[in-house]
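testing teh design pipeline on a random one, pls ignore if ur not involved
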């Protein structure tokens, strides 16, 4: 998933592969949906790129649901992940709503990327996630019963 904002800054969650080959997994329910993902944020200050410690197919589904919740005004302000360095949040600047993606190195040191919330951007964001989910579908065979955000 690669997106460009109104400033030409780029945010990318690039799925490189499933963390484990299906044939190597003894307990498919627990380990089959773990992905190797690299986050990249390119701003006027430079490029930040790093592999995420833990990212699951379920996380892609949660992002998509969170974005849908923004559209329907039912989403929580922040979306957290197992990799605690990564946070998505809703924010406003001059009454313009934004999605802010933040990667924390420490509590006071971070890199962020903003995307204005509008119908076109929401649709593009969700479509990119759906494209990734087609390439990397759930392999655990169970319904993901997380709290809808």
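output:
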């Amino acid at each position: 998933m690669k997106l460009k904002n109104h400033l030409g800054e780029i945010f990318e969650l690039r799925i490189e592969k499933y963390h484990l080959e299906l044939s190597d997994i003894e307990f498919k329910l627990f380990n089959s949906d773990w992905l190797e993902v690299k986050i990249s944020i390119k701003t006027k200050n430079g490029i930040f790129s790093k592999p995420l410690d833990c990212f699951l197919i379920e996380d892609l589904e949660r992002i998509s649901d969170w974005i849908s919740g923004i559209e329907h005004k039912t989403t929580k302000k922040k979306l957290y992940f197992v990799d605690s360095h990564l946070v998505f949040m809703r924010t406003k600047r001059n009454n313009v709503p934004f999605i802010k993606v933040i990667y924390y190195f420490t509590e006071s040191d971070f890199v962020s990327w903003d995307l204005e919330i509008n119908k076109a951007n929401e649709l593009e964001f969700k479509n990119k996630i759906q494209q990734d989910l087609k390439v990397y579908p759930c392999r655990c065979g169970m319904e993901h019963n997380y709290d809808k955000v």
